[in-house]
Amino acid sequence: MLNFIRSELYRAVRSKEIHGTAIGLVAMVLFLNVTLGLMKDVEHFRYGSTSFSYSMLVAAPMLYCYVASDIAVMLYESERRNGAMGNSVAFGLSRMQLFAGKCIVCFVVSLTLLALALPVYIGSAVLLLHGTGPVTLWDMLLEIPAMSLIATASLILAVVVLSLFENSFFSVLAWLTVMLLLPKLLLLAGMLLGSNALMNIAMWMPANFIPAATHVNTSECTAVWDTAEGMIKCLMSGAAGMLVFSGLGVLLLRKQDI
What we know:
This protein has helices at 2-13, 16-39, 50-58, 63-76, 79-82, 84-90, 95-128, 137-164, 168-193, 196-202, 206-213, 228-254, and strands at residues 215-216, 221-222. The chain is mostly helical and 258 residues long.
């Protein structure tokens, strides 16, 4: 499996899609902060601050899940169609080794992109913008461990659905259904039926409890990870998601025809 991981990391390093994503992330954060910096001294312009810049990420923590899952799509979107999985199995790798290896590769690539983009984000904000406002650098840095396991769970789910469907459209649809639609449906069902059990389950899902406890604007910054209880809930929810999606992958991929 180590040889598989090395070869996949080498492929990722040479991937034009990954290069484009890295350049795109850096370019976006630079464009944001340079634009805000050029306008920071304009009269009545209230957004030329580090607080506003940081709030773009702090107010949208699910972006970590989207980017991590997008990495899986870029690396493994065509695997079912081109028969790469069958070739790997034919060379002696088990399906579970392939599944674990792909998850590890996607995690390492995602972490590398974060390590590239984050210093640019922070450095350009500190150098170009006024250091004022309710959202601080600490708020943004705390978001990373809070979302780490949740983003990893979403990445694992992406690998599972990409391995199950030949058509990437259905893979994306399945991912969106599990990560976003199902939590909302469970929450709605709990409210309509008056079921505390359904409500409790729904409120452990990131798509529900994170927006409910996070309020970020130009005058306020309250995030779910601000408290120890909120941080623990993020980590427990992410860990549960990793276990559920990993178990789902093991069960489904064992029975899958290659």
